[in-house]
Design a protein that fits this description.
By secondary structure, this protein is α/β, with parallel strands linked by helices. It folds into 2 domains: about 120 residues, Rossmann fold; about 70 residues, no CATH class. The chain is about 55% helix and about 10% strand. Helix 3 links the parallel strand 3 and strand 4.
Length: about 270
């Protein structure tokens, strides 16, 4: 059996589980190499020649490199694909470099997918609504809290529906209460809806509602945040517009059923 290229492909909208998979792979790299170089780059922002150079040329101070390439669906130029495929073919069997391709979409260019071994590809589907409700209820129960069904629904209406965003919101909510407090819908409105974290998705929501004042306020807040960067905001809003276009294309073909939408990466209320 031929040795696999050191490339992984993690796609799909379930950011929380996808991030956990990346962290597990990083932990494996650290266990093997001690202190590998860690890099995160964005397709469409970093010239592809720089990426290949980063993969090929290691540091004098580290025995391995771990590179996460986000927005992998944007790898579309023939010369970029050719460079990536050539590097992957030349790097088969290497264990001192890791390239993890990340995309919120379901798939990437077929030639890019073809250079990734089957066992190193994973699609992280968004959970169905009933699974999200179970996830939230179980998360609070594990920490010793009770939460009303109406409060669970309010969280799903307010927070971006992936387990990463849900975990962050639920963890913050617990800071306001002792665990003998039963969390209600009013608690969600007070502590989550009115204090929600702004991101590219909330900016997109304001734009689609043609609320210029809210959009500018969100953009200002994001520009002042140390956890956000212009590249991340632009990438997030661009992704939202692409998904909106995908939704309209599906609708024009008469795809409205839950299975068809989930297959295309859509499920849930958001």
């Amino acid at each position: 059996m031929a040795a696999a290229a050191p490339v992984w492909l993690f796609t799909g909208p379930e950011i929380g589980e996808r991030n956990e998979a990346v962290q597990q792979l990083k932990a494996q790299a650290i266990k093997t190499h001690g202190d590998p170089e860690m890099h995160t780059v964005y397709a469409g922002d970093t010239p592809f020649g720089e990426l290949v150079s980063l993969l090929q040329n290691g540091s004098l101070f580290s025995s391995a490199r771990f590179v996460t390439l986000r927005n992998a669906e944007l790898i579309k130029k023939k010369e970029d694909i050719s460079q990536l495929v050539s590097w992957a073919e030349e790097s088969c069997g290497r264990d001192d470099v890791y390239l993890v391709l990340i995309s919120d979409e379901i798939g990437v260019d077929k030639k890019v997918e073809a250079c990734v071994a089957k066992e190193r590809k994973r699609i992280f589907w968004e959970l169905f609504d009933d699974r999200k409700e179970q996830w939230i209820t179980a998360f609070f129960r594990k920490e010793g809290y009770r939460i009303e069904p109406e409060a669970v629904s309010a969280i799903l209406e307010t927070v971006e529906n992936n387990t990463d965003a849900l975990r962050t919101a639920c963890s913050r909510l617990m800071l306001f209460f002792d665990n003998d407090h039963g969390i209600t819908e009013d608690d969600i409105i007070t502590h989550v809806s009115h204090n929600r974290e702004e991101n590219a998705y909330t900016l997109f929501d304001a734009l689609t509602h043609r609320d210029a004042e809210a959009a500018l306020a969100i953009l200002e807040k994001l520009s002042l945040s140390k956890d956000s960067s212009p590249v991340q905001v632009i990438a997030g809003v661009t992704y939202c517009f692409r998904r909106l276009a995908d939704w309209h294309r599906l609708a024009s073909r008469g795809v409205h059923d839950e299975f068809g939408l989930k297959k295309a990466g859509f499920s849930g209320k958001r």
